[in-house]
Specification:
single chain, 5-stranded antiparallel beta sheet, 21% strand
């Protein structure tokens, strides 16, 4: 028995000890390895892990808006998708390039070039359509990604296009307000830390960048979107009607100097700036230098009256339409013999103006021109206006003095002319033009008196005669509203002298006795007729009339209408005035409203409970429906009564 037990020796303890020893060795190795990784390579491995699971992304803010004075959005930014790639993550560049060519309609060779780049980031195509973005997302192309950018949008198309300017593909302003206020409008950029899982899903986004103000700030202009629109319409109508090359127009609020409209034709749509030539993008009203023609004469007369070298009633020999100075002959379109200074403005006599200029003298006239703002930049924020051409008085010859007196041999911009007339409209006190309301200018330009109130009032009176009497601006008359104005028809300089081309212009101050609005229109190279009183004056009338209506300043009845036509039958219109909205007296007939001013006709209808529909342009009623003598229209199931006024 004892021998048998010796032969079957038990090794279980040895086995357990061996296994335990192995575990000790393994655990010791693991602890050593863990200690090595944690203590020696911990910082390095942590950085590697962060690179795999964390990424830095950049978020751009939204560019500031450009607004009109009434809050209309003239320029804004909208989200747009763009496609980019990380070439190192694209496993099959050729197949990926073919697919992107199909979706984005771009050359395959160009895409292959991008995907073959060694850069970590390349743009494939920016600001694509929503349909294209959806197709890219559904294609699931490795290494190809979508991101969101902001695309600049001008909701009103060409409205004020040359004023606003445009931006490049990166959203940087290149011209106009966009360029001037680039620092204010430009969006900022925030760096955001993103954690992703193995599938690329975003797990965490910190709020560092969210706490920053990365959006651009708005800019508010003095432009009134409605006035800008009607000004552009009237200018385009004039240019097209007379087959002209281009046109410019400006509307200014006299008391504040704020520009309500600044129009250029042909129009420029900033939404398609890349396909627009520089000649269309050009803000002609601020940059184009022209000879103004007879619109210069009121400044000459204002200076001459201030210096007391002439009086309004003084007679001047206008040489029956032809006068020779040295070797040059000055002509008037319509010959006159003796004209008062008033009549020189009314009939726009070049000879009379030249003689007034002689009486004033070169140096004094030059000094006044400088004080009116000619020869220097108009200083309108966001408009890089030119300084024009005004040579020193010492270089003027007698012929130069005569020519400048009636608007030749001098170069001005539309902005300069508007600023000078703004001085006359403010009774001789210079006032700066303003285009931007917010941000306000840091150092506003100070005003200063150029001529006395007496001289300004005398010139305004002469300008009213241009329109209201038998002057050259009769087509600018607005029934019931006094209008002061001045026509201009300037020959354009060409090679070796003056050409047959003309620049037609008209300046209107409305109302003429106490101006509230200044309206200036220029039409360049009209083909059929060139006279400013025929080409530009109706455009100014159209702009001013519609602006007055928009601001609720419809004129009262003109005197000639009141004298030649009695009011409607009092028994039918005023004997039984009923509250608005109540039925008319049974059997009562509609009166004849034709010939009445629009305001008076509307007042009479409102008294009868009717709000009329107005059709056509003008200030005077020329037709109506129902006709005079018909029964009053009855209401229809609670709807407004139907009454149409047709304007002439």
């Amino acid at each position: 028995m004892a021998r048998t037990k010796k032969q079957g020796r038990d090794f279980s303890k040895f086995k357990l000890a061996t296994v335990a020893g192995l575990f000790v060795v393994l655990l010791t190795a693991l602890w050593v390895r863990a200690g090595y990784l944690q203590l020696y390579r911990g910082t390095q491995l942590e950085a590697l892990a962060s690179r795999q699971s964390y990424a830095a992304e950049f978020e751009r803010g939204q560019r500031g808006r450009i607004l009109s004075r009434d809050g209309t959005v003239l320029a804004t930014s909208v989200e747009a998708h763009s496609v980019y790639a990380r070439p190192i993550d694209v496993p099959q560049p050729a197949a990926t390039a073919r697919k992107l060519r199909e979706i984005l309609d771009i050359p395959e060779a160009e895409v292959r070039k991008h995907l073959g780049s060694r850069k970590n980031f390349v743009w494939i195509k920016r600001q694509i359509s929503d349909v294209q973005a959806k197709a890219v997302a559904e294609a699931h192309l490795d290494g190809v990604h979508l991101t969101t950018e902001y695309n600049r949008l001008y909701p009103n198309g060409h409205l004020g296009g040359q004023i606003l300017g445009f931006v490049d593909v990166d959203g940087k302003g290149l011209e106009g307000v966009e360029a001037t206020f680039e620092e204010r409008l430009a969006a900022g950029q925030a760096k955001l830390v993103v954690q992703r899982d193995a599938s690329g899903r975003r797990l965490y986004l910190d709020d560092q960048g969210r706490e920053m103000d990365i959006n651009g700030h708005d800019v508010r202009l003095s432009i009134d979107a409605h006035i800008q629109d009607l000004t552009e319409q009237a200018l385009a109508d004039a240019v097209r009607k007379y087959e002209a090359q281009s046109g410019m127009a400006i509307v200014v609020h006299v008391k504040s100097g704020e520009i309500l409209a600044l129009a250029n034709y042909p129009f420029f749509n900033p939404n398609v700036s890349r396909s627009s030539p520089a000649s269309v993008r050009r803000n002609r009203a601020a940059l184009d230098v022209v000879e103004p023609g007879s619109t210069m004469k009121p400044f000459l007369v204002a200076a001459a009256l201030e210096e007391k070298v002439v009086t309004p009633e003084q007679l001047i020999d206008c040489e029956n339409g032809k006068w020779k100075i040295h070797s040059k002959i000055i002509r008037d379109d319509h010959p006159h013999r003796w004209l008062t200074v008033n009549q020189i403005i009314r009939y726009s006599s070049n000879i009379g103006a030249a003689k007034v200029g002689q009486a004033l003298g070169s140096q004094r006239f030059y000094d006044y021109l400088l004080r009116f703002g000619f020869g220097s930049r108009p200083g309108v924020t966001a408009l890089s206006g030119g300084s024009g051409i005004l040579h020193p008085a010492q270089s003027w010859s007698d012929i130069d003095l005569a020519a400048i007196s009636f608007g030749q041999a001098i170069g001005v911009t539309t902005l300069q002319m508007a600023k000078a007339y703004l001085c006359l409209a403010n009774m001789g006190e210079a006032k700066p033009l303003r285009l931007v309301l917010d941000p306000a200018p840091e150092a506003p330009e100070t005003s200063g008196r150029v001529v006395s109130q007496k001289a300004s009032q005398a010139v305004l009176s002469m300008m009213r005669e241009v329109v209201e009497m038998d002057g050259t601006g009769k087509k600018a008359r607005i029934p019931g509203v006094p209008v002061a104005g001045k026509t201009g028809t300037a020959q354009k300089a060409g090679k070796g002298g003056y050409s047959d081309e003309r620049l037609s212009s008209f300046v209107g101050l409305i109302p003429g006795d106490n101006p509230e609005f200044l309206v200036l229109a220029l039409v360049d190279e009209p083909k059929t007729i060139s006279y400013g009183g025929v080409v530009a004056a109706p455009a100014v009338k159209d702009i001013a009339s519609r602006a007055l209506a928009y601001y609720g300043r419809l004129p009262d009845a003109p005197e000639e209408v009141e004298e030649n036509r009695p009011d409607p039958d009092p028994s039918s219109m005023t004997a039984q005035v009923l509250p608005a909205g109540q039925p008319r007296t049974p059997g009562e007939m509609v009166p004849d409203l034709s010939g009445l001013p629009l305001r008076r006709a509307v007042e009479l209808l409102v008294q009868k409970g009717i709000v009329p529909i107005v059709k056509g342009r003008g200030m005077v009623v020329s037709g109506q429906k129902p006709a005079a003598g018909d029964p009053w229209p009855e209401g229809r199931e609670g709807k407004d009564d139907v009454f149409v006024l047709i304007l002439s």
